[in-house]
Design brief:
The complex is a heterodimer.
Chain A: H1 21-40, H2 56-78, H3 90-123, H4 131-152, H5 162-165
Helix pairs in contact in A: 1-2, 3-4
Chain B: H1 2-15, E1 19-21, E2 31-33, H2 35-52, H3 58-65, H4 74-99, H5 108-119, H6 123-157, H7 161-178, H8 183-197, E3 200-201, E4 208-209, H9 223-242, H10 262-284, H11 290-304, H12 317-332, H13 334-340, H14 346-357, H15 364-369, H16 371-403, H17 407-426, H18 429-447, H19 452-475, H20 482-485, H21 487-504, H22 506-516
Antiparallel strand pairs in B: 1-2, 3-4
The chains are: A mainly alpha, B mainly alpha.
């Protein structure tokens, strides 16, 4: 199903003594997130006497996550576990591009364009897409959305590109 | 007792409210329209419609459909959301029975026996029993909510900040214990959620925290945004990985003969009763919810059965018990939310988000100040269940047809709906991008076997916990022992600590894994 046939098992860059790479990498990533959060909240005021500062709670949770991440990493070293799961690039890539396209075009180009464009881009996410069929469904869906959201539900969405309105 | 009837009466009054509609073409004639019932009906229908789509669970469904309630007044919106929630639950069971793709963890066990029944051409009775069991469980749970609502609200009013904080700690510990998978990872996910909830302005000083001068982050990460990213987009990406088409073995036989036989009914009645009881209890517990309830009910049924080997080969009790349990739990988990203002699980956390969007802060105050809202919602739960029973059984054929829509056409449509939904919350393109980013985060979490649901719970409880912790310490003048010297708080903390210790002990861990073992098959 994936676009890369003959997908070899992921070459492991993780040392042999790590017996549960999934947890090991997960734990390290959590530690990285925690460190980032600690750095990002380092400019905030801490405790003043017994009253909390703006930075107290973020730092508390940050240190907690750091500790938990470290624990998970240790568990990843000492227990047996599954190998890293395979990542596929096609699905995540096109879905993300479709989302970004929508975000960048909805304001200047309006919903008709944004919905149609991101529908077609998202459809690239799987090799099973048949273009004619997808195009027809995309047009129908765009029309449906244009009736549903602004009219039936009364949400303030702009349909046409802004240069056509002014 | 009289209280309960007055309250329920008030609730049904709200649900059966008629609005006079005077269209111009009738020349001044007015037609009474039961607006709230219609909203409940639409909610249940749309919820089922989306919930039936394979791979979309309850959380994703509710998150995706949030925007359609924006234009409504709060009461109507909540009633519709409740309808969506039950519809989504029911849709999930339909998918598990017919396609063997459970939309969420809660319906995994339904798939075990339900799909086997469907393969034997008994999809009709399986669906019918699921609906009947759910309806019965819904009735019991509605009464239970009405009974427990008022007294619990009184208790809640006696709670100070220290008690609230301890209760939330207990709730989070419960959530960890009752979740499946690694305890350590679940705790880590909760703390990650708590950390994410810190982004934005500090409530007391107004200082900007971890917002990096991005104006859209000044208000904090949107809850609906995060939920749609983690549960909507991440699910889509994961399904694309798994190959949407290959493992969809839709039952090809025609679904005929809806009615269960007398033997079916006789066999499943006790199972429904037991499932409802177990589900109601597990739903009320903080941290409980539909998932654990259905697993526990199935395991329990199998344990007490005379011939356990029948389970997994199309045993009707294996459908009746978990379906009743998960519906009962889905409903009773509203109790901690409505009375204490604390969401017990991820779906309820999403409900908090939805209520906040409508300007309602759930908790004991709402119960007292806006009784028509709370009781209207409770009454609508019962009406919603009734509607599911009435509409969905005849419509099974339509859902089956919907299941035949190939995933290659379905997923771009879901992407668009999610995008429009997120955008319409604040009319902010940045929100859409943030949701996209969290879609990738969610994909990564799934790949590393982290559960995203505790993260969502932590995200909602974060600000509440911080506020109460701060207040408690301010009142006690910085004395941390306040959590242990106030009796109520001390009891809650002791339970939390005991639970955590028990979970780490190997004996209980084995029991816990036993409950979830069915999902491994």
């Amino acid at each position: 199903m994936n676009a890369t046939p003959g997908h070899a098992p992921v070459k492991s860059i993780i040392p042999k003594w790590v017996r549960n790479p999934q947890e090991f990498v997960g734990g390290i990533a959590l530690m990285a997130i925690a460190l980032f959060a600690l750095w990002a909240s380092s400019d905030l005021q801490g405790m003043r006497g017994f009253s909390f500062g703006a930075g107290t709670a973020p730092r508390m949770f940050g240190f907690l996550l750091l500790g938990l991440g470290a624990l998970i990493t240790v568990v990843g070293v000492v227990t047996e576990g599954p190998h890293l799961a395979k990542y596929h690039w096609r699905g995540p890539f096109f879905v993300t591009v479709a989302i970004l396209t929508f975000a960048f075009t909805i304001r200047p180009m309006g919903m008709i364009f944004a919905a149609m464009a991101s529908f077609m881009i998202a459809a690239c996410g799987t090799p099973e897409t048949r273009w004619v069929e997808t195009f027809i469904v995309g047009v129908c869906l765009t029309a449906f959305c244009c009736l549903l959201f602004p009219y039936a539900l009364g949400l303030p969405l702009q349909l046409l590109p802004s240069f056509m309105i002014r | 007792m009289g209280d309960v009837f007055t309250n329920l009466g008030l609730g049904f009054g709200v649900v059966f409210q008629f609005v006079q509609w005077t269209p111009a073409f009738l020349g001044g004639m007015s037609i009474p329209i039961p607006v709230n019932i219609l909203l409940c009906l639409i909610g249940a229908l749309v919820g089922t419609l989306v919930g039936v789509l394979p791979g979309i669970g309850t959380i994703a469904t509710v998150a995706m459909l949030l925007p359609i309630t924006f234009g409504l007044p709060p009461v109507g919106a909540l009633i519709m959301l409740a309808g969506i929630y039950y519809g989504a639950q029911y849709g999930g069971s339909t998918t598990s029975i017919l396609v063997n793709i459970p939309g969420e963890a809660g319906s995994v066990v339904t798939a075990l026996d339900g799909f086997q029944m469907a393969k034997k051409g008994r999809a009709g009775p399986a669906l019918a029993i699921a609906a009947i069991g759910s309806f019965f469980a819904g009735c019991v749970a509605t009464v239970l909510i009405a009974l427990l609502g008022a007294p619990l609200t009184k208790i809640a009013l006696a709670f100070g900040p220290a008690e609230y904080f301890s209760l939330m700690v207990l709730g989070l510990i419960f959530a960890v214990v009752l979740a499946k998978g690694s305890v350590l990872k679940a705790i880590a996910m909760i703390v990650f959620g708590l950390l994410l909830s810190m982004v934005g302005s500090d409530i007391e000083t107004g200082a900007s925290r971890m917002a990096f001068n991005i104006p859209e982050l000044a208000d904090g990460l949107g809850f609906a945004t995060l939920a749609m990213g983690l549960f909507g987009f991440a699910e889509i990406i994961r399904n694309l990985d798994a190959g949407g088409e290959t493992d969809r073995k839709l039952v090809q036989e025609k679904v005929s003969g809806l009615m269960p036989t007398g033997k079916d009914l006789k066999e499943s009645t006790p199972a429904i009763l037991r499932g409802t009881m177990l589900g109601s209890i597990l739903g009320i517990l903080p941290g409980g919810g539909a998932t654990i309830a259905s697993f526990a009910a199935y395991t329990f049924e199998k344990k007490i059965a005379k011939d356990p080997s029948k389970f997994g080969h199309g045993e009707i009790r294996g459908v009746a018990a978990p379906e009743s349990a998960n519906n009962a739990a889905a409903q009773t988990s509203f109790i901690p939310l409505l009375t204490l203002g604390i969401p017990p699980n991820a779906v309820m956390a999403l409900m908090v988000g939805a209520m906040t969007i409508h300007g309602i802060v759930p908790g004991p105050q709402v119960m007292q100040k806006q009784p028509e809202l709370v009781w209207g919602m409770i009454a609508s739960m019962w009406v919603g269940n009734l509607m599911l029973l009435i509409i969905n059984l005849p419509m099974v054929g339509i859902w089956v047809r919907l299941l035949r829509v190939p995933y290659r056409l379905m997923f771009p449509a879901i992407v668009i709906f999610c995008c429009i939904g997120i955008y319409s919350v604040n009319n902010a393109p940045t929100d859409v991008m943030i949701a996209g980013a969290f879609g990738l985060v969610g994909y990564w979490l799934i790949k590393h076997d982290f559960e995203p649901a505790p993260l969502l719970l932590g995200m909602v409880l974060g600000p509440l916990m911080e506020e109460n912790l701060r207040r408690a310490l301010l009142i006690s003048r910085g004395d941390w022992s306040v959590f242990l010297t106030r009796p109520l708080s001390a009891v809650l903390m002791a339970i939390a600590a005991a639970l955590l210790v028990l979970t780490v002990l190997p004996a209980l861990r084995k029991k816990r894994d036993e409950v979830f073992v069915e999902s491994e098959n």
